[in-house]
Write a structure and sequence with these properties.
By secondary structure, this protein is mostly helical. Helix content is 60%, strand content 5%. It is globular and about 50 Å long. The model has no long low-confidence stretch (mean pLDDT 92).
Amino acid sequence: MISSVRLKPLTWHPHIAPVELSEATTEQLDAMKVTPSAKKVSEYVRTLVHDPESYVARTVLFNAIMYVEGGLARPDRELGALGASIVNGCKFCAVVHARRHAELTNSDDLVTALYLDKPEALGPRDAAIYSLARRLSAAPSQATADDIASLRSVGMDDIEIIDLIHAISIFGWANRLMHVLGHAESG
């Protein structure tokens, strides 16, 4: 039995001063309305919104990939994001998506296995998803037809596979934005 890993949220600190809401232009304020969380406009969002046009384009795409109804199940999208973030060394995104996966599945078994570097503890579907996330993130050319066959062998259809590839791939971009624009640390 693997003892459970509890991940505490990290704090992201920008290297570029975020836009202050009180000083934001109308275009910047309108752009921030596409933020997935209506609860809080984070420092990350306020950093990206220096360029409101690219922020909207990025966020609409991100939302369509990660939060769309239908296709790949949300926990599987989160596992793809988690695998990519681990490979890309983005601790902030890895913790966010590990916690989301655990919340969505009501279990931290998968997260514990990954953080203790015990991928052999994963079930066949999760192992196939995690394997593709690692291979595609390490070097896109490492992902092959064998990876697709592995996903099909655990019951995934073409739409789910495409959704997974999108979720993994967008984190190649998202992780790089996080790294260049700031850094994460505990508490």
